[in-house]
Amino acid sequence: MGFKRLLASMGAGGASVETELTELNVVPGGVVQGEVRIQGGAVEQQIQGLSVGLQARVEVESGDHETKQDIEFTKVRLGGAFQVQAGAVHVVPFGLDIPWETPITMFAGQHLRGMDIGVTTELDIARALDSGDLDAVDVHPLPAQQAILDAFGQLGFGFRSADMERGHIRGTRQRLPFYQEIEFFPPQQYRGLNQVELTFVADDREMDVVLEMDKKPGLFSEGSDSYRAFKVGLHDYQGTDWAAYLNQWLSQVGGRRNWL
Predict the structure, then answer these.
(1) CA gap 197, 183 in Å, rounded
(2) pTM of the predicted model, to two decimals?
């Protein structure tokens, strides 16, 4: 018995953890529900802590290179210490709040490639730590975000790609250590643009919408980036024609090539 306890403390024959999500589809500001199932090992063990969190895989720029980094951006401890009997199953239900700034991973009914966000589970046992696999969640746009995305579609923009980058956008309400960029390629009427990058930074009342417009070079000028930002209320966005609103900005910057 003493030898089994030693193995368990080293992670061999000890308790294991598995997380099951009740609903995979969530929105920023929502709640992901699930339960953690702890399977007792060969001996009784003292569990010192159990927590769940949200993790994102983001791009980190370092000089001329980009690397990927897993960032846990929210974490909740589920209760205090408890005992798990040998071979027994201990079930802990949970509800995990989704931060309002959480990037979307779903667009037009499809999962955005490279948008990896999921629930992490950590079981803290004396002298051992068991981290479960990442349980992916599908983060859908808020209605106000969907209205902006639909406006880009109405103007003829096509989705190109999306990524999450470590850093901070100045002048926004951003609190997370990273942000999302959704890239579109423009239709012919915006022939002065290479692409447009869209970022949402939301809280419980409104969101900052940030546009980075990559302008094509002219005959005697280099290409350049132009930035625009505006606020959209999460509950009163319906009164604006967002396609017309965006067109004003986009036409001004990319309606024609700047040849001079």
Answers:
(1) 4
(2) 0.86
